[in-house]
Every structure is written in C-alpha cells, then in structure tokens.
Amino acid sequence: MIGHPSVGLQLKQFEVRGRNEFQLGPLTATISPGNFVGLLGPAQSGKSLFLASLCGLVPHGGKKEFLSPNPSDDVNAQLIFQEGGLLEELTVRANLGLAQNAFGTVKLQIQDDLLERLGIAQAASLLPRELSGGMRKRVLLARALLCEPQILLIDNVAAGLDPNNAKKLLDLVLDLKQELGFTLLWVTHEPGPMLTHLDQVMIFQDGQLAFMGHQDDIPQNERFHSYLQA
Predict the structure, then answer these.
(1) Residues whose CB is less than 8 angstroms from the CB of residue 171 and which lie 6 or more positions away in sequence, other chains included
(2) What is the pTM (predicted TM-score) of this model?
(3) Rounded to an integer, what distance in angstroms lies between the CA atom of residue 198 and that of residue 11?
(4) What span, in angstroms and rounded, lies between the C-alpha atoms of 93 and 183?
(5) Do the beta carbons of residue 1 and residue 78 sit within 8 Å?
(6) Is residue 43 exposed (0-12), middle (13-18) or buried (19+ Cβ within 10 Å)?
(7) What are residue 163's phi and psi, to 5 degrees?
(8) How close are the terminal C-alpha atoms of the chain, in Å?
(9) What pLDDT does 63 receive?
(10) Residue 37 neighbours by CB distance under 10 Å
(11) Which residues pair with 31 in a beta bridge?
(12) N or C terminus: which one in the chain shows less Cβ crowding within 10 Å?
C-alpha cells in the first residue's frame, strides 16, 4: 500500500438533488490538497448526500474539479459508509480481496499487514455478522485503504462507538493520512475529539453551506454553538 499525490476539490455552483425534493446547494467551496475537513450539521442537512455526490454515486449540477498535480489522471475517491457496505456471505478476507482486485492485484500480505495495524488480524476469516461494531468499522476502513484513495470520505463511521474506541479510530485514520497523504472529509455529529486536527470545517444546514473555514472562525452564536464544544 503506497501513498499518492494529494488531491483537492474546487466546487462552483455545485448542487445535488436528493429524495423528497431535497436540494443541496448551490454552493461554492475549495478544499486544498491534503486537508482534513470536518462536515458538521444536523441530520438531514445534506452532509451524506454531499459525500455521495463527490465520489460519483449521485449526479450533481454545477462544476466539480479535482485539484491534482496530474489533471489527466483519474482521481480515486473512496467513501466509507456509516453502516453496511460489506457482503455478508463473504469473509473479511474475501471482502477485502474484492476491493483490492478492483484496483490491482490481490496481495494477501498487504491485507494481513493492514489488519494487524488496525488491530483486527483475527478478523480475516470471520464473516461480517461475527464482527463487533468496532471491528466492522475497522474492516470498512481497511477496505477503503486497500483501494489506495487520494480522497477518503467518511460518513459518521464512529457513530455507536464508545468514546475510547472512537478516539482510537480517529487516531488510526490520522496516522494513515499522515503516512499516505490522502485528503480527508469526515461527517460527524460529535466533532469534539477532532476539532484540534481539522484544517477546515464545513457546516451544512437545510441543504445550504452555512459556514466554511477554520474552526477558530466559526461565529460565536447560538446557531453554531454545538460545533464549538471540544
């Protein structure tokens, strides 16, 4: 598993239509290569829809441009869902192999090394239903990393974990980000542990980008109060 040059994003009048006539945007934003961006906001404000549109699962309007040192190359963006995403009838190793095969050759040693690093080496032969919640989330992370993403999109994957395991997962992702150099966008409803690590914050409300910038510049008012709690 190797790193790739960091990739950023430039969005202009970017908009996405969701279910029940929900619309996200239009919004304009720039995410610098290698940044760690926290996506905050209440439920149903458009955060998950935003991630799905960035990796091509949902069509969008407006302009989406990847800021890459090699503009002609395809950009690999991987999305980790909050739940699901694993084939329940296959072992962890088989699930990882499918992902790895899609982007090259299945290399069991790389799988084993990554599972060991994530603290779940014993999970390789298990089925998804045999995993604890924390193990399942680490397997989802392993699968995404085996695809060697340039942009990693995480949809509230720490939800349901106790604070200690959530912090361990965050630390693991940050260590891997430092090593592999991917740009990271992370949806969370509990931003406290990651606030000091963020390069940018995006706050969504009612389908609009209500704030984008550094966390120190979030307006000190009741509207954004919950996002300032460390």
Answers:
(1) none
(2) 0.90
(3) 20
(4) 26
(5) no
(6) exposed
(7) -55, -35
(8) 33
(9) 95
(10) 20
(11) 9
(12) C
